[in-house]
Amino acid sequence: MKKMLYITLGIITSVGGFLEIGSVTTAAQGGAAFGYQLLWAILLGTICLIFLVEMSGRLSAVSKHTIVEATRERFGFPFFFIVLVGMVLISFLVLVAELGGIGLSLQILTGIGFPWWAIPVSFVVWLLMWKGTFTLIENGASLLGLVTLSFVVAAVRLHPDWGNTAHGLLPSFPGDQKARYWFLAVSILGASISPYLMYFYSSGVIEDDWDESYIPINRFISTFGMSLGGFLSMAVLVVAALVFQPKGINIEKFEQASLLMTTALPKWGFFLFAMSMLFACLGAALEISLAIAYFFAQGFGWNWSEDLAPSRDARFSFTYTIIIMFAAVPLLFGVDPIRVTIMSMALTSATLPLAIVPFLFLMNDPIYLGEHRNGWVSNTVVAIIVLISFVLAVISIPLEIIGG
Amino acid sequence: MNRVLGIGHNVNQVSVKRLLVISVALVAACKFPTPAEQMDSLQSWLATAGMVGDAWLRHTTPDKYSRQTLELSHETLLQLSSDLLRSPPHSVDSATLDDVLTRSREHVARMARLIEAKDAPDFARQLDSLRVDEKVVKRLSDRIRSTP
Prior knowledge:
The complex is a heterodimer of chains A (404) and B (148). Chain A is mostly helical and 404 residues long. Chain A contains 18 helices and no strands. Chain B is built from five helices and no strands. In chain B, helix 2 (35-57) packs antiparallel against helix 3 (63-86), helix 2 (35-57) packs parallel to helix 4 (94-117) and helix 4 (94-117) packs antiparallel against helix 5 (120-146). Chain B is elongated. At the A-B interface, helix 5 of A face helix 1, helix 2 and helix 3 of B.
């Protein structure tokens, strides 16, 4: 009975916590610019994420190590330090984007510019971290994030052509704007395969004290939770394709994206979008702050647990305090969160090998996983998708920068 | 040997300089969007203003958001228009282009002001005029695109 509850709650929170500013922005931009053509990128990213989340949970449940602890132990400090720098930098950019997403949601609701929200929003995020428990952070924001299901309602109400939608699940080549197409594909992949999710999930398995008996639950939650989450991203893209593409609207600003649901749900669409973004970004900001603090604490061997009082894991609490404080600074100066989002998602794709390659080594190490090591299917699927993301990122990021 | 190396060094310097000049020229050429791309952006922001206008008339978006987004559209249109008219495309009459873009911007600016006055009938009239200008911009954009 307890395990059934775990599964239900796990799937609900995976769905509610799936969307964040990166997945919504990239899917909306993709749909507005190329119709259903980029659905394949969400599908590919979601498949990869299912495998990665399942592996993260399995590694921690079997070995009783988080990914960070195992990486440092297996590869030594110098290599771990390179991974730390790369992952923390990217996660920091994503945190700036998520805090900015909360600020932008409040801006469209109140009319007060997002830079004014930088400090209050960062303070609330920090306070929830300081006072909250892991369960509150994992479940609370994700349950509120269930409002993002309204994207699916909006998509269904717009009566998309399901045949064309299904066609978009197969990779295709664009007629024109090739650099933009591939850059968006890379950003969508980066938004789907966020490495911080792996670190957060693996630490959560230790926080929740899972063991080998939880392997089937872990598989169930990661498969169904992430699939349904990916379905939400696809719904955003479908709505954008139906609403913005015929009008020729390219999404450059959050104010434009805010109109996403006003056609399908005239009465509530605007507020549902604002609330969806508010809760989705809040959940993601909490998870990323926690993931960065886990990274430092586990890597340097400090005390760590979101369930401990801050006085008992002072360095862990100090880390997220500093990180949140610094993340507010660019927003205070009016740096556009949408630009940060798009760039950080593309950079995530470019740095995926740094996070995933050592992780795959760990997943094939009998010392950590014994009989629960990866099979060839998991290795092949993840390696191919990460390679595709990396190659596309290396080609398209310079093209997009040069193209302005 | 040193002389040979010296000559080699000079040759390398010249090549590097030439490469740098070519790279900068290439980047500069790529950095500016083509007139067709600029027209796409203009159309996108005109359509955004139209969509916000529709939403406001249907009472589906708050006043503040609608006004601010129309102001943002106006600012962006102003910037895009001045960029485009700095080197206008040859395939269209620049006076016609300037005229329609100025008119569209004025409609958008007036719509933003009318939200404050809560004057829905006049707002609807401005929105209709904006739609007409949007079609003219689209025609001009198609002409620019079809001209090699």
